[in-house]
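Convert to structure. Protein one:
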Amino acid sequence: MSIYAFDGFIPVVHESAFVHPKASVTGNVIIGKDVYIGPGAAIRGDWGGIVIEDGCNVQENCTVHMFPGVTVVLEAGAHIGHGAVVHGARIGANALIGMNAVIMDNATVGTGSIVGALCFVPTEMQIPPRSVVVGNPAKIVKEVSDDMLAWKGEGTALYQQLPAQMRASWREVEPLREVPQDRPAQSNALKTWKQTKESR
């Protein structure tokens, strides 16, 4: 793991978490149980603190940082999509931040909310629990339904299982030069939101 002390602070990473070796975790950072930190993620607790509670995931190429003296909190089960930026904000429990979204300083994303891909949440915006938020600047467009929240929970549950799966089977290898005939099929562990709606 790429874990770095800074100014006397050593990151704390629970043994059940998985931090990819190509992620970077620096300074005053606390990472809880069953957390997944993907490659390319930068978790910079140099000027303030970062608390990533149990069951969160911070996917590939995300950035978590802050202005001096601020603590960023990702509450339990928060789901931070590929390429998102969380800067000095608080993300509520079981909230989903879409791919390449930006959450700015002193903003709060309420519990169970869904922030769309490419959304820009400006400084100090307070998003109530279970809100669907889209656009640049961010706009609340509706409430998160029970079905949407259940679907989001299924996706987060996959990420909560991933750290153990990574520790059990992930390793550096030489590539194969051709596809073996007995190459196994992968399971369809999660339907898209559209497929989920159509099946109900």
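Protein two, convert as well:
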Amino acid sequence: MIPAGREDLIALDRAHVWHPYGPMPGRSDPYLVQSAAGVRLRLADGRELVDGMSSWWAAVHGYRHPVLDAALAEQAGRMSHVMFGGLTHEPAITLAKTLVDLTPPGLEHVFLCDSGSIGVEVAIKMALQAQRALGRPGRQRLATWRGGYHGDTFHPMSVCDPVGGMHALWTGVLPAQVFAGPPPAEFDPVYAESLRSMISAYADQVAAVIVEPVVQGAGGMRFHHPEYLRVLREATTEHGIFLIFDEIATGFGRTGRFFAGEHAGVSPDILCLGKALTGGYLTLAATLCTPAVAGAISAGEGGGLAHGPTFMGNPLACAVANASLGLLADGGWADRVRLIENGLRSGLEPLRDAPGVTDVRVLGAIGVVQLDHDVDVPRATAAAVARGVWLRPFRDLIYTMPPYVTDETDVARITAGIAAAVAAG
């Protein structure tokens, strides 16, 4: 029998539960959440916090949304899961067709995955298998730019920032990839030419270029000029290299466009989606590709893509993803993201002159305050919680990516929580 008391539960958590990016046991106790509704998390001690993180950027509709709850319950009444090998079902078929209709032109085939990191693994496998099938087996490396983050499994780790990222521990173990410098916020013709030169110099080794378009997420919450995506598109096309966009964090409206690549009007050969795909309800990702990529793989020696997760195409996840996309279909998300953007700008801009702050940046429903030192995460988090806000700073960044249903009053509360975290951190 598990004890129900808050202190007992925290003690069990401390003894047995290993939390992300931390030691075992943890250096500080986590906050115990009892329930969540709308944009609020209710803690076991009775406090309510406005969620400034959308559960790591996924819960774009908030919590306990009636439409998503109903979709999940209805699908559970039919079937919760069935293997995807040799079988199919309506939720997956509908989701695939919807994603093809929503994504940039040319992406016609959908591979459903377990999580964002696995979606990137699948994208890399697609590129490597297709190049091999096209008679270019020497193209086994990937190219990207510094400052990126693509997940915690092995090949995605290899294209995360090799110095400032979270995976420097694995240097020498991971495949050695090709890196350009981090992309500047403004357009720099010299940097653009360096991208072209890099791709040309390594063309006989590189299977694909992979980047997060416009916004680099967990690698540093940096924004870059969309024109660099057009440069990459032109250079990869010229050399027969595939272009992969990792839109796991940026997809479904977060940057003010439905997909961040739309800021440049560019279509990739392979696209990775996740996080907000199910509105934060269940883990699900999707990797889309062009007929050229799928055709090469299918005609190659393997006869198909060498990947097949046990929970691929999970009906519950697909059903709630369809409901989530349905909520976004009316386009109202754009106005809501614009209101959040305006609120973040007005609330965070005064922090530009605060002690220790080096930059303030806002794009869509993303607000970032960068410090000149690493954040004291427990202190900064506690300061935000005292203001009724949940934030999760990392490295030198205190940031927010709130649910799209966050109103102006709660956006103001979030920015006040960020200000408190900056002062404490």
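The mean pLDDT is 96. The first strand starts at residue 33 and ends at 37.
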